[in-house]
Design goal:
alpha+beta; Arc Repressor Mutant, subunit A; two-stranded antiparallel sheet
Length: 104
């Protein structure tokens, strides 16, 4: 088991069920909220998806304003914008912060 800040990564693969209640977008947001300096491959490992899927999700989250990326040397540091409302009409009366607080 590898420890990275507030995040523990299991080797070799996380035990991810075949379906969950939250999307991979939510899982990436939660992962970045817990450790904003994780590399994309570490995010992929934590969520149980490919690095390519993480890149696509990060791009979508950045375009929508949910995540900001800062380049520090060869690494990225991510900041989750928690005040933005969730996107789906069933939950858009709640913010990203409400989700993060609920699962943290």
């Amino acid at each position: 088991m590898t420890t990275m800040g507030a995040m523990e990564l299991r080797d070799p693969e996380p035990n991810v069920p075949s379906w969950t209640f939250l999307t991979n977008h939510a899982h990436v947001l939660i992962t970045l909220y817990r450790n904003p300096e994780l590399r994309q491959r570490d995010i992929a490992h934590a969520v149980g998806i490919t690095v390519g899927a993480v890149q696509k999700i990060l791009h979508e989250l950045e375009d929508a304003g949910f995540v900001e990326r800062e380049r520090i040397g060869r690494r990225n540091r991510y900041q989750v914008n928690a005040d933005i409302p969730l996107r789906h009409p069933l939950e858009n009366n709640h913010s990203v912060n409400d989700l993060l607080v609920a699962v943290d």
